[in-house]
Amino acid sequence: MNIKIEKYGYFSLDNEPDQITPERTSRLYEIEFITHANGYNYCNEKEYAAQAETLVFYPIGTKRYSKGSFKCWFVHFMCSDSLINSCLPIKRKSLQITNPKDFSGYFQTIIDKMLSGSKADLISAMSVLLALIFVFAQENSTDNARYISGPILAKLELAKDFIETNYKNNIDWKMAADHINYSHIYFHNLFKKHYELTPHEYIVNLKITFAKKLLITTDYKIPQIAEESGFNNYTYFSYLFKQKTKMSPLTYRKIYLSL
């Protein structure tokens, strides 16, 4: 596989709001994960507001400069593999990330493995980079956007069954990925691709649905319902319930018991 990581690290730019960095042209493929932002990125003369918790891809030949301050993880790589290149976006691409701690961890893993320098660690770093590339490849796909092969779909169903059996035990979606021996990022993106929900969203929906059932079929107090539904924090349960149903658990109970 003709792919090589050339640069990697964490970049912090503490410019004044109106200060502009010198323009440069990217000589490698670049992937950044922005953790803090207060400014703008300029790419081929177009302005983009820098947003925290955003994964950004820049193709080779991109003219870039920035205004203001931001902090980001980054990895720059070269690739002559035709299959991988065909999956990469042909222009700047940004994706909002819902699990930022995981993505910071992916970049930290690349750095740690590259600094180690052993052959095994270099392969490990490459596998994480490929997982990041997969995120963009998935978004870049059109004709085959929903296609997943039978064996992989069977594994996803096993993970979904695991979630449905254990969601009331306050499991983390990563446990489902571990259950079928898939990397967390690969599982997360496959699950979302097929079910059109992230694994976390799917678990939350299951918990809220069960909580609704308890609200109208039992006289349990709200904290007990939260616990029975797999939430270890009553306040967080109430927040999510209202976010999903547009009403508090007590209001939901009163309305449906009065019907």
Polypeptide structure, described:
It is a single chain. The radius of gyration is 22 Å and the shape is globular. The protein has 259 residues and is α+β, with helices and mostly antiparallel strands. The longest helix is centred in the middle third of the chain and has 22 residues, at 119-140. A hairpin with a 2-residue loop joins strand 3 and strand 4. Strands 1, 2, 3, 4, 5, 6 and 7 form a seven-stranded antiparallel β-sheet that branches. Helix 3 (119-140) packs parallel to helix 6 and helix 4 (150-166) crosses helix 5. It is built from ten helices and seven strands.
Keywords:
259 residues, alpha+beta, 7-stranded antiparallel sheet, 49% helix
Break the fold down into its secondary structure elements and pairings.
Blueprint: E1 3-14, E2 24-25, E3 29-43, E4 46-49, E5 54-58, E6 63-79, H1 82-87, E7 93-96, H2 100-116, H3 119-140, H4 150-166, H5 173-179, H6 184-195, H7 199-217, H8 222-228, H9 234-245, H10 249-257
Antiparallel strand pairs: 1-6, 2-6, 3-4, 3-5, 3-6, 5-7
